[in-house]
Amino acid sequence: MGSLLGVLPSFDPLNFNQLRPSDPSNPCKLMPVTYHSSHIRTPPPPDQVETEESCH
Description:
Region (Disordered): 20-56
Domain DET1- and DDB1-associated protein: 3-49
Pfam families: DDA1
Structural class: little secondary structure
InterPro entries: DDA1_dom
Protein name: DET1- and DDB1-associated protein 1 domain-containing protein
């Protein structure tokens, strides 16, 4: 029985630094997703703040 980790895409370190189309016969322009905040030097809106909930 082979290792299940061997079939994961993250097993290959090259997967983290390049983008490849899922279908090489139909290439498309891929761009990395970049987060752009909707606020500048002000407190973020309440709907963009993650809060920690106590689990105790």
